[in-house]
Amino acid sequence: MSRAFVALGGNVGGPAARLLAVMGEFDSLPHTRLLRASSLYRTAPVGYADQPDFINAVVLLETGLSPDALMGELLAMETRHGRVRHVRNGPRTLDLDLLLYDGLVLDGDPALIVPHPRLHLRSFVLTPLVEIEPECVLPGHGQAASLLERMTDRDEVRRIDFPGLDDGLQVLRRLGQGLMPHAYA
Fold first, then answer.
1. Which of 3-7, 122-126, 166-170 has the lowest mean pLDDT?
2. Which of the residues 3, 33, 83, 158 is marked catalytic?
3. Is residue 35 part of a domain?
4. Which of 39, 101, 114, 166 is the most exposed place for a label (fewest CB within 10 A)?
5. Among residues 92, 102, 109, 150, which one is catalytic?
6. What are the start-end ranges of the E strands in 30-177?
């Protein structure tokens, strides 16, 4: 089995509720189980600014799927949740990015580049990644926590605190087929 980190994001159609629901769906993917889930974070949009703020998170999956097969499943999940690609960096119901897959470096197919080509530049992805895997190393870039520490916009990534959020994440962690709070995994 392999370990894969996936970023989740969205900014339309109830993104916080959608991300929590999607976290609960990972166990239904073939040969895959959710091991860890980060908190939810709110961030300003990048690139195309005339849109709502994004809600972001990162999960750790254990999977028997190849990187290509996992990417196919992630794209199918996006479609099931109404993802339509009209404007680059535009509003979306759901965005799922394969960030890391074991220690592999894949760059032969433009549709599947691992590590994600902009992972090391994005505090809104590094923050939840470091939350669930503090010692994470990005091939070719080093410690994720060190990269995050040097980012000038890291304080703009705000953890969402609202009544019931922590309870909801804990329920997800207990219900997952093997999902454990990251302190115990």
1. 166-170
2. 83
3. yes
4. 166
5. 92
6. 32-37, 41-43, 54-63, 95-101, 106-109, 112-114, 137-138, 142-143, 158-159
List all residues 6 or more positions away from 18 whose beta carbon is below 8 Å from its beta carbon: 10, 81, 93, 94
Q: State both tokens at 85.
A: 């690609």
In a domain, 185, yes or no: no
Q: Which residues pair with 44 in a beta bridge?
A: none
Q: What is the spatial distance between Cα 2 and Cα 101, in angstroms, rounded to a whole number?
A: 7
Catalytic hit among 18, 97, 122, 173: 97
Does any domain span residue 77? Answer: yes
Q: What is the CATH number of the domain that holds 103?
A: 3.30.70.560
Spot the catalytic one: 95, 109, 155, 167: 95
Question: Catalytic annotation on 166?
Answer: no
Contacts of 70 (CB under 8 A, 6+ apart): 4, 29, 32, 61, 63, 98, 101
| Domain range enclosing 171 | 2-175
Active site residue 53: no
Task: Write down the pLDDT at residue 50.
Answer: 78
> Which of the pair, 51 or 62, is modelled with greater confidence?
62
